[in-house]
Write a structure and sequence with these properties.
acyltransferase activity, transferring groups other than amino-acyl groups, about 160 residues, Histone acetyltransferase HPA2 and related acetyltransferases, Aminopeptidase, globular, seven-stranded mixed beta sheet, transferase, about 30% helix, alpha+beta
Length: about 160
Amino acid sequence: MIRAMTQADFSAFWPSFKAVIQAQQSYAFDPDMSEQQAFQLWCELPLKSFVFEHKQQILGTYYIKPNAMGPSKHICNCGYMVSEAARGKGIARKLCEHSQDIALELGFKAMQFNSVVATNTVAIALWHKLGFATIGTIPKAYLHPKLGYVDCLIMHKQLSD
């Protein structure tokens, strides 16, 4: 089930969130941020945040927010996280599909991912399957802990005219 995220949900997911940011392989977040800083970043600053819950366990989450303001406020941005134990089970796909429906409900016409780490090939393949196009590359934009500086991709999908 996908539903709105609460502070209690975030606290339950915090160990997974912390593991993702400390791995430094997909998010340009401070690996030492506190749970409260992470909650603010993921749940308070965006328009909405959601969780994927199964058998009373929070297995994944996403946020949605405008990608820019003013004349570009019709494009949204989302971020997704799935717990390590739940990866490969289609949860990211369900979260992304849900986020596209929510984006349309909120009046967004497109979705853009500003910085997809190029080594995150599983996510990139999924986004391509879901209709996102790679529209740009930011050279050496991410300091990967094992590979050094790697590129990031800008990905985009038009949701409506």
